């Protein structure tokens, strides 16, 4: 372990242990953070990074161990104490009230509750100064509900800076940003360090870690497995430390494109609140291809997924299937057309938490034989099917009668994968299929998608992770504010060029705003 | 404090906590009775004796349980699909009105044809009453809790209007009361010589039917899916609104059967007080039964026992009868808390 | 034409404002709860408790304002129970609310029977009397309607302003609104969602109870069973109608009350003679349902309404 100069230590974690039931999320983790340094907390999904930071910030109580900030021990489980000690946290899931303004969100909780009025104008001046100092462009009087994801993140950072945070924790901040926005964020982080702040930056993207951090702390299965200066390591070593063994990128063979199975012809869908609908989108999904949809979250991916998944119909334009334009478009129609759907949120949309595995496995299939006849369920057939899925797709569970809420995210996703792939679909709609999965499950999901492609299915892969898109896709579209870019072939554009599209440049009619 | 899921709750936890809730209810009731001047330890005994202590008492309890099984089922079915039907009271009265309209001579049919006809017509009418709020929910997103509650008042006033107008017994004296049903429209007794009508039989059959629907049919599966997670159900292709409407039809129909059973089985005519809140009590019955249709039968007997027993206890010990309602409210609140605590443990920070 | 005569009579508007007053208290109470994210279906029962407790306190020799305070405290007590079950324990707000209504109502009736075992008609108290505000009460129509009411009515109107200011102009209101929109935002800023929601439910329940007390201490001077008669449920509809804003909710309450006052008067006209009185009595409930339907499209529901918050949930 590298020793940090005692006088410079701003934060010290001492043997933090946290258990959730049988799972040990954090196992005796200790490290120091020095003034003016950026530590990258590296680890794959489920390694315990977020849990550790939630303990530090007081959202969780550690079972053992303690947190010291500037030499003072933090009382456990009090975000207030952490805030007062100068810890600011930018959560992965933003903690903003959409119905209030940026200023109100920032001021929230910074003044004693029992007083009349709050100093709006003074607050506005301070916020504008911070905006200037740190390059965090955002309008203090805008309603949060109307902001883009990138702007919301800036509000989160402003919240911390407004409270004079000395230690900034950023939980997977780049997951929702374009490459250019990521650069801006890094610039802000460098300014923060120049102002004497210390930063903990959580990520699982190696190139970002090497770009911004001075030190790396690696977690694996809840244990601290390595701590080193970033300069002493290369990406190869980092990857190995993170997952234990280096994982080769998926071997992608070239595939011959098949016929067009689904086509969007100038499709538009209505906006939903801040989330844009599609704007005259054109796209063709061909068999034997993985079509990657790159884009920053909240740019119309939801509308696209809902359209192809049958949840919404085009407001204008046409959705054409192999057999023509469907007259009635619904989830059932989509399923009947051979479209398998892996939803973005497996907890909220993909499964019913209090149903058991069997009940979840037949969720899309129950209305037809063999699972039901004339309105009567055949639970025997349903159990057989579930058993088959459990075995073929390696779903680790105590049994088919287990409530699915007790399964890990990876096993839940495998069940969904089995449910949709067992029907040998023509089209697979995979919306963020590996979000939150550990490396084993992630690799498995990718293999299955590739296998479906090799079988001749069209796979639409929607992801915010540009690396995932470029690694897997035969064809890439970029989606921005509901508009679709033309199709680009594998390797046709560089990451930077894709980033330009993701930022909304290059689209037709860009000059007359959408 | 915070709540943490318990992965494998012990038997002590799953049985002990609900038992503790019931025990707490009894203790609280005893204390209240003591304030009223009764012997605190005698209260429970008096209630049990009053509810089940004699043949007459037991029959009274069974008769009281009958409408509660219907309304309890109505609520259980609806709540299972997260359709918050607080309007069983209105549906019950509408069922009773239909029974009176068809059963006072309008249809001069033999009993075997007349009774099923009335029952079905009553169910349809009750279903329609719940369909209105359900439609407002699916079409406009209006919260059905408030609309079903408000409709209770509307329907009760409507019944009052009918009893002073169209349905008023021409032979009656000023009292708002309908004419009596013809003999063919009366539910026969289940056992000769016992004051127990076939409404109870119908209630038990209904409980069984609902249980089968929930466990064995696609509709039951759909209703449970919609209740647990509408978003996932819609995504999977389950027609959520259609399922809600079917649920409303079933729930409203079951509640209306309570009105049918009370008028055709017990009372023989309609007055404004045929239901002392059976519709609302059905909510407690359903919750105590954890929304399980077979559990509803047990819970209805329990609740009816408390009502009948508390009545007799209050006469014997001079305690206001409202103690029964207090006990039910306490049992409900403590039970939902206990059930939650069987699944989650409280951790202090 | 009779209707127009009614509409321009001062007594009509005086009655409308009087009828609106308990609704204003209770609807404001509900609004405070819902803005913090808690639907309080205990409102109907809490109004019954408040009506009884305030009246009983005065009957037992307390002053009128002491009665109001007692009513408020009794409501807060039930608010504490409701809050404990729904906030830290996160139980279903529907079930708990209905349970509280049943508990509060039956406990009240029980206490009433214990306190007055033998009476057939409940005793009367010396209720709040109208207080004419000098000068202002001389304004035609508006004067008698707004400025010759009882002190409790004035208090109701003052409270609308107070609640508006607190909600939109103070740090406390900010925290309360945020708790109803995204509790995680409150938590992340170092405030306790539990404390804010509990406080809101208690204060809101206190206001509901004062609304109930208005019935026994200002509108009438005695306590009857069934006295609240669905007013609580109507208040829930009024909050929706008012889009969770105090000012609009006040407007809704006054409109509603004006309609109620109107139907009472129309009943006594030649027009009303042919129509069964039940139709008039139904009207307020049907009107509430219609209001809900009309407003359903535009309403800005607090996003976290009825969503329990479990700290550190994974």
Automatic annotation (TrEMBL), chain A:
It is found in: Cell membrane. Keywords: ATP-binding, Cell membrane, Membrane, Nucleotide-binding, Repeat, Sugar transport, Translocase, Transport. GO terms for molecular function: ATP binding; ATP hydrolysis activity. Residues 11-246, 262-506 form the ABC transporter domain. This is ATP-binding cassette domain-containing protein. It is a peripheral membrane protein. It comes from Sulfitobacter sediminilitoris. The keyword Transport applies.
From TrEMBL, chain B:
It holds the Pfam family BPD_transp_2. PANTHER family: ABC TRANSPORTER, PERMEASE PROTEIN (PTHR47089), GUANOSINE ABC TRANSPORTER PERMEASE PROTEIN NUPP (PTHR47089:SF1). Keywords: Cell membrane, Membrane, Transmembrane, Transmembrane helix. This is ABC transporter permease. GO terms for molecular function: transmembrane transporter activity. It comes from Sulfitobacter sediminilitoris. InterPro entries: ABC_transp_permease (IPR001851). Its main location: membrane. It is found in: Cell membrane. GO terms for cellular component: plasma membrane. It is a multi-pass membrane protein. The chain crosses the membrane at residues 20-41, 61-80, 92-112, 118-136, 148-167, 196-214, 280-310, 322-341. The lineage of its organism: Bacteria, Pseudomonadati, Pseudomonadota, Alphaproteobacteria, Rhodobacterales. It comes from the Bacteria.
TrEMBL record, chain C:
It is a multi-pass membrane protein. The keyword Cell membrane applies. GO terms for cellular component: plasma membrane. InterPro entries: ABC_transp_permease. Keywords: Cell membrane, Membrane, Transmembrane, Transmembrane helix. It comes from the Bacteria. This is ABC transporter permease. It comes from Sulfitobacter sediminilitoris. One of its GO terms (molecular function) is transmembrane transporter activity. Its main location: membrane. PANTHER family: ABC TRANSPORTER PERMEASE PROTEIN, SUGAR ABC TRANSPORTER INTEGRAL MEMBRANE PROTEIN-RELATED. It is found in: Cell membrane.
């Amino acid at each position: 372990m590298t020793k940090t100069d005692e006088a410079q230590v701003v934060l010290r974690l001492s043997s933090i242990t946290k258990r959730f039931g049988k799972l040990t999320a954090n196992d005796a983790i200790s490290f120091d953070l020095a003034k003016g340094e950026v530590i990258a907390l590296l680890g794959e999904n489920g390694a315990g990074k977020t849990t550790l930071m939630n303990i530090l910030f007081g959202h969780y109580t550690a079972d053992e161990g303690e947190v010291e900030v500037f030499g003072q021990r933090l009382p456990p489980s009090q975000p207030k104490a952490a805030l007062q000690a100068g810890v600011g946290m930018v959560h992965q899931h933003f903690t903003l009230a959409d119905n209030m303004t940026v200023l109100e969100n920032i001021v929230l909780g910074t003044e004693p509750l029992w007083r009349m009025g709050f100093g709006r104008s003074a607050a506005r001046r301070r916020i504008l100064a911070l905006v200037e100092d740190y390059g965090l462009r955002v309008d203090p009087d805008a309603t949060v509900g109307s902001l883009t994801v990138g702007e919301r993140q800036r509000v989160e950072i402003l919240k911390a800076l407004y409270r004079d945070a000395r230690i900034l924790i950023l939980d997977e901040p780049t997951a929702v940003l374009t490459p250019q926005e990521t650069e801006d964020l890094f610039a802000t982080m460098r300014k923060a360090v120049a102002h004497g702040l210390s930063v903990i930056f959580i990520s699982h993207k190696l190139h970002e870690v090497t770009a911004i951090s001075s030190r790396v702390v690696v977690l694996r299965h809840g244990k601290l497995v390595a701590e080193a200066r970033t300069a002493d390591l290369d990406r190869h070593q980092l990857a190995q430390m993170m997952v234990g063994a280096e994982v080769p990128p998926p071997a992608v063979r070239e595939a011959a494109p098949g016929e067009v199975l689904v086509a969007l012809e100038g499709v538009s869908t209505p906006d939903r609140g801040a989330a844009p609908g599609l704007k005259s989108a054109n796209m063709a999904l061909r068999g034997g291809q993985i079509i990657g949809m790159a884009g920053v979250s909240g740019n119309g991916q939801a509308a696209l997924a809902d359209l192809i998944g049958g949840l919404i119909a085009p407001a204008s334009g046409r959705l054409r299937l192999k057999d023509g334009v469907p007259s009635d478009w619904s989830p059932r129609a989509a399923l009947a057309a051979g479209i398998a759907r892996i939803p973005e949120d497996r907890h909220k949309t993909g499964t019913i938490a209090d149903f058991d595995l069997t009940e979840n496995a037949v969720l899309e299939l129950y209305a037809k034989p063999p699972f039901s006849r004339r309105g009567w369920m055949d639970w025997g057939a349903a159990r057989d099917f579930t058993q088959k899925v459990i075995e073929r797709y390696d779903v680790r569970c105590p049994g088919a009668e287990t409530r699915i809420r007790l399964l890990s995210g990876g096993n839940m996703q495998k069940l969904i994968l089995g449910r949709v792939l067992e029907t040998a679909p023509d089209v697979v709609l995979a919306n963020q299929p590996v979000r939150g999965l550990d490396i084993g499950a992630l690799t498995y999901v990718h293999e299955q998608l590739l296998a479906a492609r090799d079988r001749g299915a069209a796979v639409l892969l929607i992801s915010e992770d540009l690396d995932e898109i470029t690694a897997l896709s035969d064809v890439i579209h970029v989606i921005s504010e509901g508009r679709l870019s033309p199709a680009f072939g594998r390797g046709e554009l560089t990451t930077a060029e894709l980033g330009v599209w993701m930022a909304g440049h290059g689209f037709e009619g860009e000059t007359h705003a959408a | 404090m915070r709540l943490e899921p318990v992965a494998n709750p012990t038997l002590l936890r799953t049985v002990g906590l609900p038992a503790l809730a019931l025990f707490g209810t009894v203790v609280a009731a005893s204390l209240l009775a003591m304030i009223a001047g009764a012997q605190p330890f005698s209260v429970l005994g008096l209630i049990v004796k009053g509810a089940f202590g004699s043949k007459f008492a037991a029959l009274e309890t069974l008769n009281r349980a009958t409408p509660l099984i219907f309304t309890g089922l109505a609520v259980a079915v609806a709540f299972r699909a997260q359709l918050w039907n607080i309007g069983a009271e209105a549906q019950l009265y509408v069922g009773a009105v239909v029974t009176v309209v068809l059963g006072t001579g309008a249809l001069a049919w033999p009993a075997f044809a007349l009774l099923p006809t009335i029952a079905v017509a009553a169910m349809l009418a009750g279903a329609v009453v719940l369909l209105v709020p359900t439609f407002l929910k699916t079409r406009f997103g209006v919260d059905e809790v408030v609309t079903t509650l408000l409709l209770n008042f509307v329907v009760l006033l409507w019944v009052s209007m009918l009893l002073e107008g169209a349905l008023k017994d021409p032979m009656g004296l000023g009292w708002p009361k309908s004419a009596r049903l013809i003999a063919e429209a009366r539910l026969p007794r289940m056992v000769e010589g016992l004051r127990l009508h076939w409404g109870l039989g119908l209630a038990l059959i209904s409980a069984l039917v609902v249980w089968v629907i929930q466990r064995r049919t696609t509709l039951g599966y759909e209703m449970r899916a919609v209740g647990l997670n509408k978003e996932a159900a819609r995504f999977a292709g389950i027609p959520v609104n259609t399922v809600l409407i079917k649920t409303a039809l079933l729930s409203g129909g079951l509640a209306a059967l309570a009105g049918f059973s009370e008028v055709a089985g017990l009372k023989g005519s309609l007055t404004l007080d045929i239901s002392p809140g059976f519709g609302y009590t059905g909510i407690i019955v359903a919750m105590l039964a954890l929304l399980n249709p077979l559990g509803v039968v047990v819970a209805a007997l329990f609740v009816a026992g408390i009502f009948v027993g508390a009545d007799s206890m209050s006469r014997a010990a001079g305690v206001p009868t409202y103690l029964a309602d207090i006990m039910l409210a306490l049992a409900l609140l403590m039970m939902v808390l206990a059930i939650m605590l069987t699944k989650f443990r409280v951790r202090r920070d | 034409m009779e209707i127009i005569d009614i509409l321009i009579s001062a007594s009509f508007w005086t009655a409308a404002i009087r009828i609106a007053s308990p609704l204003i208290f209770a609807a404001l109470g509900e609004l405070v709860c819902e803005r913090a994210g808690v639907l309080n279906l205990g409102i109907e029962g809490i109004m019954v408790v408040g009506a009884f407790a305030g009246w009983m306190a005065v009957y037992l020799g307390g002053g009128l304002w002491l009665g109001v305070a007692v009513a408020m405290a009794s409501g807060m007590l039930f608010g504490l129970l409701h809050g404990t079950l729904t906030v830290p324990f996160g139980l279903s707000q529907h079930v708990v609310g209905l349970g509280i209504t049943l508990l509060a109502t039956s406990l009240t009736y029980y206490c009433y029977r214990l306190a007055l075992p033998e009476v057939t008609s409940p005793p009367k108290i010396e209720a709040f009397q109208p207080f004419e505000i000098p000068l202002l009460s001389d304004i035609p129509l508006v004067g008698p309607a707004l400025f010759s009411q009882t002190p409790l009515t004035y208090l109701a109107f003052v409270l609308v302003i107070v609640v508006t200011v607190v909600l939109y102009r103070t740090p406390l209101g900010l925290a309360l609104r945020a708790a109803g929109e995204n509790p995680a935002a409150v938590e992340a800023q170092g405030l306790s969602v539990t404390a804010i929601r509990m406080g809101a439910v208690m204060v809101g329940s206190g206001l509901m109870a004062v609304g109930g007390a208005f019935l026994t201490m200002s509108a009438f001077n005695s306590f009857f069973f069934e006295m609240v008669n669905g007013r609580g449920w109507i208040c829930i509809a009024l909050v929706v109608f008012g889009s969770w804003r105090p000012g609009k909710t006040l407007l809704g309450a006054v409109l509603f009350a004006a309609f109620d006052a109107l139907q009472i008067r129309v009943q006594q006209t030649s027009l009303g003679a042919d129509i069964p009185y039940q139709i008039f009595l139904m009207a307020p409930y049907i009107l509430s349902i219609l209001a809900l339907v009309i407003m359903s499209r535009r309403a800005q529901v607090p996003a976290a309404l009825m969503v329990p918050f479990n700290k550190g949930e994974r």
